Amino acid sequence: MENTLQIQEKIKQFILKTSYISADQVNNHTLLFQEGIMDSMGFISIIDFIEDNFSITTTSNDLLESNFESINAIANFVSLKISVSENCFT
Amino acid sequence: MISIPQRLLGEALEFSFRNHPLKTVAIYKDKEYSYTNLYESALNLSSYLISNGIKKGDRVALYMNNSWESIVSIYGITIAGGVFLVINPQTKSNKLNFILNDSGAKMIVTESRLIDELSIALEGLQEIQQIIISENSQQNNNSGLKYTNFDKTISDGNLSVELPRIIPNDLAALIYTSGSTGFPKGVMMTHQSMVFTSWSLIEYLRLTENERIILVLPLAFDYGLYQLIMAITIGGTLIIEQSFSFPPTIFRQIDLLKPTVFPGVPSLYAMMIATHRKTGITFDCIQKITNTAAALPEEFVTDLKKIFPNAFIFKMYGLTECKRVCYLEPELIDSKPNSVGKAIPGTEVFLLSPEGEPVSPGEAGILHIRGPHVMAGYWKNEELSREMLKPGSIPGERILCAHDLFKMDEEGFLYFLGRNDDIIKTRGEKVSPVEVENAIYKIEGIKEVVVIGMPEVILGESIIAFVTTYDHLLINETEIHRQCIANLEAFMVPQKIIMLAKMPKSSNGKIDKAALKKILSIHDGRII
Known about the structure:
The complex is a heterodimer of chains A (90) and B (528).
Chain A: H1 4-19, H2 40-54, H3 65-68, H4 71-88
Helix pairs in contact in A: 1-2, 1-4
Chain B: H1 11-19, E1 24-28, E2 31-34, H2 35-51, E3 59-63, H3 68-79, E4 83-87, H4 93-103, E5 107-111, H5 115-121, E6 130-134, E7 146-149, H6 150-155, E8 171-177, E9 185-190, H7 191-205, E10 212-215, H8 222-234, E11 237-240, H9 247-257, E12 261-264, H10 266-279, E13 288-291, H11 300-307, E14 312-317, E15 326-328, E16 342-343, E17 348-352, E18 365-370, E19 377-378, H12 382-388, E20 389-391, E21 398-408, E22 414-419, E23 424-426, E24 429-431, H13 433-441, E25 446-456, E26 460-469, H14 477-487, E27 496-499, H15 513-523
Parallel strand pairs in B: 1-11, 3-4, 3-5, 5-6, 6-7, 10-11, 12-13, 13-14, 26-27
Antiparallel strand pairs in B: 1-2, 8-9, 9-19, 14-15, 15-16, 17-18, 18-21, 20-21, 21-22, 23-24, 25-26
């Protein structure tokens, strides 16, 4: 299983690739949507990305600002989802 | 007692204030404001504007995000007899400078986070006398311009100030829209037009004073502006959001504040549909959703009915030059799936051949629009005005020619066939290809640029830039993309940049756009 740091890095690389911004303009706490780095289309692409790459599913209850506002927030959300789904199988 | 109907835009606020002084007119950042708050703030701002030299007909620009301050400003300016123009806060300094200069605005209302961009845009402008800034900020004043804090302008009114006498023929707003020349043009709207249009929309949307309209579209977009005007006119409530860019914020607000009307555009609905398919999210409180700016794809309707199970779906079509042309009654959404309906109440439309002859049902024709909603013309641009406004059958009357191709069926329902100019419509916004091309040409080493729009389900049209350079190694797609993001509003940034070794040309040296489209289909089969 990937640790949160690895998840953060994967998400960061994805954000950099899709937003065309340079690495020094974003850190793990940057508010991606408030700063205009991502928009509503980007929001969907983030959901697609995390579902495809970390084998998780999002539900309507997950669509909270606190789960998506920054790289950190997304990584924490993904980690939590992974741990919940793993617990389901044990 | 007979009640005198509304004649001026600002009277709507006055009437609704008298009818429901304590009712919530707006919710912004979790704070509720009453009609009394809005009416008093707007009156105070108007007396401030008048005592600072604003006279009837003077232009006052708004360059700010959707906010409480922006709606106070719109009504304050109109009560003071000024002509308001709302500029999209994404606008970069070049274009901002053009609009401020073209309109001859005397004052600007803005917010502190936009002041850097605005300062660059102010260079060389002679007419600007004062800048009003919302949010606390200490502006270094070395330009000779007067900077005032917004809160000061609305905190107390000067009761001795005399409001000007405005008549319905006076200008109320300039609405800037992209032009095919690459420079935006100001659509002139009188009080009469705007009051008429707001009532026509209220009638067919069947709005009541219980309506709570959620505004996620910018007020700079006439579709957004009219949500405010309608909310005030019916005595309803406007839920003000800055944008739809972070969907979870909007989902939370809908859940919390229970709006009844959701005005959107296809790109926004596409995003909601994608979210719904993944998560099953639905919004039961919404009773009406509206779509304009780009055609609502037929395949969206099934999903929209699931997302908004209690809502009527209104499909509409319009252009800034008359605000709105037509709408489809929501009951007909399934039986007339591709139609945008009939003319809005109090107006008429007809289709003419390029020679000016009426066309038969089912045949393509150019859309013409008649009614009090038609603009007075483009600000200080009679030549362009004459291209759009043609003489009608009544001597002196001017009829709007939309330059869009439509057909009409036997029952009079309209079907959009295509555009007659180069303007790209994407995410509900109009984009001039020339404007995007000019931004790319500013990069050193660029040889030729051609920007075209390609039909795309979600965006309406996607923006594609074809580029040739003098030295291919020095410039790449990412670099061009970055330049576009730095110099253009977000919706104008091309979705795809294709570097070519050579621009395809026809025998007479003109760039062959058909060949470019073919290149695109080879380049990426998905878009075609």
